[in-house]
Amino acid sequence: MRIIVFFDLPVVLKKERKAYSQFRKFLLNDGYVMLQYSVYSRICNGEDGVRKHMKRLRENLPPVNGAIRAMKITEKQFENMEILLGTTVVEEELGAKKIDFF
Questions:
Q1: I need a surface site. Which of 26, 37, 45, 82 has the fewest CB within 10 A?
Q2: Where would I find the beta strands (DSSP E) of the chain?
Q3: Are 75 and 45 in contact (CB under 8 A)?
């Protein structure tokens, strides 16, 4: 399973930039990889892992206005994603290889 997080946070004021930076650092420290700007993905080991990380996401929401969405998808759905322009990122390819070890 995977969680994909999409977010659009304001960065006009200093406190907004700080909140954005802290949220992004949380995502990276929690095992998410950037697919593209403001779109991050994390591999979870089943439904229990998804619930655990969704809870962690909710606990680390920034205290500013903006939009954050999370979507749970299966590995098969993720593999069927088409890249219309650009290429995969190195972290994305490494994440796919980690799955083979489970």
A1: 82
A2: 2-8, 33-36, 39-43, 67-73
A3: no
Token digits of residue 85: 């322009």
Nearest-angstrom CA–CA distance, 20 and 37 = 12
Quote the pLDDT of residue 92.
67
Q: Are strands 67-73 and 33-36 parallel, antiparallel or unpaired?
A: unpaired
State how far the Cα of 14 lies from the Cα of 17, in Å rounded to an integer.
5
Token pair 């070890």 in the structure block, residue: 101
Q: Are 26 and 85 in contact (CB under 8 A)?
A: no
The one-character DSSP state at 81 is: -
Using left for φ > 0, alpha for ψ between -120 and 50, and beta otherwise, residue 17 falls in alpha
What does the DSSP 8-state code read for residue 101? T
What is the per-residue pLDDT across 26-71, written as a single tens digit (0 to 9) for each? Answer: 999 999 999 999 999 999 999 999 999 999 999 999 998 999 999 9
